[in-house]
Predict the 3D structure of the following.
Amino acid sequence: MSNLNIGIYGIGNFGFAILKHLSNKKLKNKLYCYDRNINVINSIQDHKKHPFLHRDYVLNSNVNLCLSPIELIAKVDVLILCVTSNAIIDISNQIKKHSKKKLIILNTAKAICKSSGKIISSIFSDNLNSLDYEYGMLAGGTIANDLFKQEPLGITIAFKKKKTQSLLKDIFSNENLKVYLSSDVIGVEYAAALKNVIAILAGIIHGLNYSFGSETHLISRASGEVENLVVNYLGGKKDTFKMDSQCWGNDLWMSCLGNSRNRKLGILIAKNNSFEKGIIEANKLKITIEGVNSIYSIKKLIESRDNQFPILSGVISLLYEKPDKIINQIFKF
């Protein structure tokens, strides 16, 4: 492991938390980072500080800044993607063009492509089929600020090969962050993405002033539909959807009932009784919501099986109809 260089692409909230986490571990590996925001680049280059986040924190001297994505891709063996799903296609094109050696790619974006309905591993598979790479997923109930503050947390890291799983566990785990391993890359991706959809739904129910019991009732039923869809139709494994799974049970309850961005969006949608107006208000507050793209993709995922997934079908209707009406209908299913 000591010969592998590690790079973080994207130094936003989660990327910066991971950067701090890995730099504090003082790994023997060289640690690199890059962000497309020039203000972030300049601040880290000149002051070893983030210009917007945790401005009192000074990065350790073992953090090496790259000035372009080309430089980052060329230097690292393990590339950790801390970007939104909207950036994935561009980054995969950069990797395709500039990667010259085997690359381990660890994705943290929890979403499904809006236009194609594909998970991110499929996008990389389509675009990088001529390259030597391994793709994996990091998921769990890890809000960036909690990771930054070194709260005791758990994550799932999924790769097909056990050797790579162990490698990433060594890189990430410490006394504050417990790493659980999985070979179910597809299942972990779908669990992480569709959990965000349920969190938006939970926020809407809360914002419409239903009881806490009503909220947990629908969370449990929606999670059952997601498990059914992924395990029986999309290739995921049943073990991924256990309550003690970090990428499912942990992340599901944290996102649905905690201070998550997707839950906040749901509350804004309920407040405006409009999906579109809720999105507009979230954009004004500069809240990036990964679950939105996944909602658009659900129709492609359930195809002609709407009758098996009445709650997920109802979620699709939230895009076009009044949320209070749709939620009332969903409770009748």
